[in-house]
Amino acid sequence: MSQPITDLAALEALYGAPAAPSLAKECDRLTPGYRTLIETSPFFVLATSGPDGLDASPRGDSPGFIAVADDKTLLLPDRRGNNRIDSLRNILHDPRVALLFLIPGVNETLRVNGRAVIDGDPALCGRFAVDGKAPKSVLVVTIDAVFFQCARAVLRARLWDPAAQVARASLPSTGALLAEASAGQEGGDAYDRSLNERIPKTLY
């Protein structure tokens, strides 16, 4: 029998009070330790909200690709992608963003909530050029809250455990997924062959 929880009092009664450390770890700016985590991270997920709903987009590059301008400001290069620009469209509508940073081999994650501005200044974008190729824009994020997330989720997932890794060949290929979703209009074996050649050449 379903038992929907529809009010805050019932929810809080079910879960109880948060542990003191879970509240104490939240800051409105980067501590030196939080800064180190961000500068070590090669990957984060960017969550945004827009008129058509929510979006969560993976972002990654070599550690240090996220620049810390000061203890309240992050600079995030918007690397080359598929030009859907769902996240950027959302930010134009609602500047609030949430970031989840991961570091390979580290079970704790880092969460940042803030507000983003899309900056297309050529000089700023040029600071993030790789192989002479600059991003088209940089997200300037003003931090409202930052805190680390404990290790439970990553440990339960065995995310960094080599024994838990899945062979990519055991799953549908990108071309197969695209063909299935588009009723055969896109994708297929030819798409897989071209993608394997194209991606390494179009990272930046």
TrEMBL record:
Domain Pyridoxamine 5'-phosphate oxidase N-terminal: 31-150
Listed Pfam families: PNPOx_N
UniProt-listed Gene3D superfamilies: Electron Transport, Fmn-binding Protein, Chain A (2.30.110.10)
NCBIfam families: PPOX_FMN_DR2398
Protein name according to UniProt: Pyridoxamine 5'-phosphate oxidase family protein
Organism name: Azospirillum griseum
